Amino acid sequence: MLKKRIIPCLDVKDGRVVKGVNFVNLTDIGDPVDAAKAYYEAGCDELVFLDITATHEERDTTVDMVRRVADQVFIPFTVGGGIRSSQDMNKMLKAGADKVAVNSSALANPQLIYDCAERFGSQCVVLAVDAKKEDDGSWHVYVAGGRKDTGRDLIDWVKEAVALGAGEILLTSMDKDGTKSGFDLDMLNAVAEVVNVPIIASGGAGNIEHMVEVFKKTPTTGALAASIFHYGQVSIKDTKEAMLKADLEVRL
């Protein structure tokens, strides 16, 4: 059985780690390389870096950050934001990233998923999805940092992306993001029913119980959190010990 993964997320803007609520009201948390090293030493299983305002002009900054992180941490880490081609992905992997996340660009051009998977393998391609519940009970996929509703149905999109070669899904609930009210279990289970790749739950982690709950009540293999780790409210060590007590497979 796959061990459950605890994954701190670092949203990066202008070379700094930031955090907000429902994708807005961003506050500065610190230097991404320092944060990565601290999390690695604290025992996290993986790391995710998302350049939330990525443009071509910032690409060099992100590549430099990836290099510096790769020098400090020796666990898998994923980088996303502004990946528009397999060449962009190649730069990140060469700089030291293990996996690369695609989001807006993949929606605009689904062929990007196929091209990246064909060139580097599905295990390197993470589909990052930001989704929000609609009045009819379905979920729509959003882009542009959660500002734009694409009108795409979440379930349809994840099925298409996995068929094209996405090897993992990083699924963020916009309704839960930064609220610390627990993960969106319904959405996670709905996606898990239609795809056969690992899913990382994102959005809503507020305490250790939420981390245990998401693994107990959904098939997700990874739980991503930001606020509770950034502000020292919860330690990775305590989280893993609670998971072990709950009979979850975990790497100590």
Characterise this structure.
The longest helix has 14 residues, at 59-72. The protein contains 10 helices and 12 strands. Strand 4 (47-51), helix 2 (59-72) and strand 5 form a beta-alpha-beta unit. It has an 8-stranded parallel barrel with strand order 1-4-5-6-7-10-11-12, surrounded by 7 helices. With 252 residues, the protein is α/β, with parallel strands linked by helices.
Shape: globular
The Rg value, from CA coordinates, equals 17 Å
Summarize the helix and strand pattern as letters.
EEEHEHEHEHHEEEHEHEHEHH
User: Could you give the distance between the termini?
Assistant: 15 Å
Structural class, by secondary structure, is: alpha/beta
Strand content: 25-35%
- For the largest beta sheet, what order do the strands appear in spatially? 1-4-5-6-7-10-11-12
Subunit structure: Heterodimer of HisH and HisF.
Enzyme class: lyase
Protein name: Imidazole glycerol phosphate synthase subunit HisF
InterPro entries: Aldolase_TIM, His_biosynth, HisF, IGPS_HisA/HisF, RibuloseP-bd_barrel
Structural key phrases:
252 residues; eight-stranded parallel barrel; 10 helices; 12 strands; globular; lyase activity; Imidazole glycerol phosphate synthase subunit HisF
Give the SSE layout.
Elements: E1 5-13, E2 16-21, E3 24-30, H1 32-42, E4 47-51, H2 59-72, E5 77-80, H3 86-95, E6 99-102, H4 104-108, H5 111-120, E7 125-133, E8 139-143, E9 148-153, H6 154-164, E10 168-173, H7 185-192, E11 199-202, H8 208-217, E12 222-225, H9 227-230, H10 236-245
Parallel strand pairs: 1-4, 1-12, 4-5, 5-6, 6-7, 7-10, 10-11, 11-12
Antiparallel strand pairs: 1-2, 2-3, 7-8, 8-9
